[in-house]
């Protein structure tokens, strides 16, 4: 990763974290335990990949200023809620995330369910209250977020993923799960950023395709790292897909086949960007980063 | 209850049910199990009190036509999600609701969590996609729904209610819980209906007060019925507040004290309506109904 991209990621994370924390600290959430539980998971960090992709898409199409921040924050809140609920005992039953106890391990299941609900609920008014976005733009962004995150999007992906456990999936089924579970929110990031920069409808369609490709790139690299990754860099155990008997790209296509498939998507993603005539190379760089990341 | 009000309630329930079912059946929810789980809880019925109050408020201020229906549907979806999550083992751990198995008993916990998430998520785009509402009105209604349902509203009420279990609450604490847990969404119903009918800001403020009163009336009568109600009419066991050691109005004020408190709120609610100069007696009737209902 180039030093410039590293700085870009750090700056994006910083801006986003500042914005979300300030926003949520002003909320009069009750009771204290619930507020702490919400803040605990929001503070836990992570790459902030979705908001950074939104910022990058916004800037790549000439967007300037802060109007993208509330939408980026809302998206990260939705992503965080989904992690809290996915970690629950009834779902993936995970005790640790990003090196710290999962929300329900720290605050109990009831509070974790409510903290997730609270983040999801709040995300919509974060967009609704944004001062620099027009009402018709807000309606588009809020409705699209609902669609991308709901039972026709991310939630469908999570439910399908659970149903696919201990079953042999086809490549088609695997891609459907990833397109829904991961792809929909990543695509939202790209499309919302481009939309706020005021691109034409045709460009928005191109960005939808680009978003789908980077969702798949992200997921294939995730699967590859679970086979070839370095635990100390990755910060989580490798081989868990094998243990959990999950269908993955390396399992269906072999390791080289999975890499080849990913390279195909990287090419297609670059093509989308070229057709969209963007003014910066940031989204190109991020595409490469997603396909070569080691954690 | 007058025959006219009974018809009014039935007609309202019918309109609302038709609207929601048609809407959700068109959604391409995946997988089938999740779609079934969502439809199961939405079909379970109940009084549809919140949407009916919204319709009544809308009509009382001269609102006509269908523009209120999507907002009423969204509110009922939020209410239904909250019941699914509240019934979960980690929360109230209920096996039955409205005479049928709770969602998690029928579909398992994971699916119930996701079905609740899906209904909450979808509620916002139901408003966002409404064809007869202006974008600025949609933004107000979506943001206000987020606020009323979130960690400064209904979710806060549920969390405070759980914390209050097995503790002696003061009347102040009890009313705070009810104002948040039940009052916020009931108030939303009234305010959104009046707002869509185009009332002045002063009238909206009056309707916020009216909503708070009917929330308290609803809750006190709930507590009273748990002491004096007829199980066969009520459709659920009485005395459960005693068993669960919950703070209630009759416990804090005595049965007669609770009734007197409720009558005070009924008077205040009527006063709000008189000051708001409404054109029909429907909200008056519904106020009386809420304070005298037997189920």
Overview of the structural elements:
2 copies of one chain form a homodimer. With 295 residues, chain A is mainly alpha-helical. In chain A, a hairpin with a 2-residue loop joins strand 1 (96-97) and strand 2. The model of chain A has no long low-confidence stretch (mean pLDDT 95). Chain A has a two-stranded antiparallel ribbon with strand order 1-2. In chain A, 52% of the residues are buried. In chain A, 74% of the residues lie in helices and 1% in strands. Chain A starts with a helix and ends with a helix. In chain A, helix 9 packs across helix 10 and helix 10 runs antiparallel to helix 13. The radius of gyration of chain A is 18 Å and the shape is globular. The longest helix of chain A is centred in the C-terminal third of the chain and has 28 residues, at 201-228. The first copy, chain A, has a single domain, classed as Farnesyl Diphosphate Synthase (Orthogonal Bundle), CATH 1.10.600. Chain A contains 14 helices and 2 strands. Chains A and B meet through helix 2, helix 6, helix 7 and helix 8 of A and helix 2, helix 6, helix 7 and helix 8 of B.
Brief synopsis:
The structure is a homodimer of 295-residue chains. With 295 residues, chain A is mainly α.
